[in-house]
Amino acid sequence: MSLYYDAVTILTGEEQRGSLKSRIYGSKSGLKSKPAHLYALISECAKYDTFLREVIEKSQILEHEPKVTPLLSLLLLHDHFFAKGGIAASASHPLRQAVERHKARLQAEFTKARLRKRCGTVEDLKRVLAEGKVGINFNSVSQPRWVRVNTLKSSVSAQSRSTFAGYSKVQKIGNVAGAGWGNAFCTDEHVPDLIAVPPDASLVKTKAYLDGELILQDKASCFPAHLLLGNDNEFTGDVIDGCAAPGNKTTHAAAILRSRSPKDGKRKHRIFACERDGRRSEILQTMVDKAGATNVHVLPKQDFLALDPNDEQFRNVSHLLLDPSCSGSGIVGREDIPKFDLPIKSQPKAQPPKGPNASKKRKHESITTAEEQSPPEEDEQPNASTTKDPERLAKLAGLQSKIVEHAFAFTAATRITYSTCSLHEEENEAVDLQPGGLREWPHRGKSGSGNVDSGHTLSEEELEGCIRCYPGDEQGTMGFFVVCFVRDRPGSENGQVSSGGMALDDHDDAGSAGEAEDDWDGFSD
Ligand SMILES: C[S@@+](CC[C@H](N)C(=O)[O-])C[C@H]1O[C@@H](n2cnc3c(N)ncnc32)[C@H](O)[C@@H]1O
């Protein structure tokens, strides 16, 4: 039975860094279970959580069994229904008995739920449920920790001599992220001033991190600012970051622009950073200040959609960076820890545990309660479950489309990047650009798809204009999507507009990346 308690410890305990494997194999929590069993239980359960949640809620087992917490119920019922040997506990164990007491009702709800999925057999069901999952690759290679050196305050060479003085420099990302890491670091081949360090490298207490000289930002997350500004030698105007908090891309853009700012005293480029959420606006301002990004003008509590494109202060805006809220389905690379879709107890009947093991039981229950009390924010946080939720995606895609469409209203704009840390096509290639935008900015998308509603299918050239990143491959990034729209300047080949596809080759870089929006306490992605 310790297997299930150990799984709860891994998923909710204090050791919250690193991959699932490193958490299990490197745990100092005195786990009693075999690591391989634990890993198998957690990773398998992650495939079926949403389905099991339905069964658990309909059977109301949580209402009748106060000792069974929501997370425990998922783990137990996973084994009850899907594991060869059933629940790994003696027949007399209270938790096993708690499940057995509701066996008939659970089985009935399980069968009904299976049939609702139109699956004739359990094997069919397993296949269908596994196919419905995206984003977690439990066999993925370890990902490095990406660190952007904030060139507003420091440089790679200065950091090599100070923070990374004890590190040995290696040439390949794989040598940083692989097993037996040690203190190795590698400078990135695509994004300037970006460094990869081992995933367990502890930087958050270093002076450089605390002083804003180092920013923890996934490689893919550096692509938008780099694509937008890194190679545009004709850049003359101002920038709007439409969805800016916590500000990693804003400060990256600021750093790139600083290196360009006219040294002859002419007007400096400005970055207007919008953030509609009040709390995040404060964080954004703090991060901007900490990074020394003096050319950033934070517009707190400002909905980008409410910005007037004809406002005099935006007349020089030539570049827009759009990184709106998304499902976060790509944010699984650094920590491949599943976030379970937990069942909800409709009428909590919590009873104080009694007996000699009371404190132990209380501990397990309180861990899960705390977990439930901080649910992910609906449209802001990485996907709570790895399941694709069509309704949620449709809602997000609607907002994302509006944001892209609004950016086109800034008529002086010559470049716009749109990015998400999502792997879902609905939020990426298929985001519906309204007809005007579509005509003006035709190059958008990848993966042979397009927008179902508008019937627009992406051309080969358009596909080239998109960059995708997938977690778990040798690039060492999280899942991400970015596209850069480029308006031809007057006199160019097509007379008015065409799209400059931001293919990797064009810019000697790759991918895009996303942000974990729950990291609000420092420069982290
Ligand atoms: C994915 S995060 C942005 C991450 C950020 N670009 C970075 O690199 O640190 C999306 C942010 O956009 C904000 N947001 C969403 N819709 C917005 C809108 N219409 N106007 C302004 N901010 C918005 C959210 O509150 C959230 O803070």
Give the arrangement of secondary structure elements.
Elements: H1 2-12, H2 20-25, H3 35-59, H4 61-64, H5 70-82, H6 94-100, H7 103-116, H8 122-131, E1 145-149, H9 156-161, E2 168-169, H10 173-177, E3 184-187, E4 194-197, H11 207-210, E5 214-216, H12 223-230, E6 238-241, H13 248-258, E7 271-275, H14 278-291, E8 296-300, E9 317-322, H15 358-373, H16 390-407, E10 415-420, H17 435-440, E11 450-451, E12 456-457, H18 460-464, E13 466-469, E14 480-486, H19 504-507
Parallel strand pairs: 2-3, 6-7, 6-9, 7-8, 9-10
Antiparallel strand pairs: 1-4, 1-5, 3-4, 10-14, 11-12, 13-14
Bound molecules: S-adenosylmethionine.
Short description:
The protein is of the alpha/beta class and 525 residues long. Helix content is 36%, strand content 11%.
Task: Describe the protein in words.
The protein folds into 3 domains: 2-133 and 358-373, no CATH class; 145-217, Alpha-Beta Plaits; 221-331 and 388-507, Rossmann fold (3-Layer(aba) Sandwich). The chain is α/β, with parallel strands linked by helices. The two termini are 37 Å apart. 49% of the residues are buried. The chain has helices at residues 2-12, 20-25, 35-59, 61-64, 70-82, 94-100, 103-116, 122-131, 156-161, 173-177, 207-210, 223-230, 248-258, 278-291, 358-373, 390-407, 435-440, 460-464, 504-507, and strands at residues 145-149, 168-169, 184-187, 194-197, 214-216, 238-241, 271-275, 296-300, 317-322, 415-420, 450-451, 456-457, 466-469, 480-486. Helix content is 36%, strand content 11%. Helix 1 crosses helix 5. Strand 6 (238-241), helix 13 (248-258) and strand 7 form a beta-alpha-beta unit. Residues 134-141, 349-386, 433-447 and 491-525 have low confidence and may be disordered. It binds S-adenosylmethionine (SAM). Belongs to the class I-like SAM-binding methyltransferase superfamily. RsmB/NOP family. Residues 341-390, 492-525 are annotated as: Disordered. Keywords: Methyltransferase, RNA-binding, S-adenosyl-L-methionine, Transferase. The active site is at residue 421.
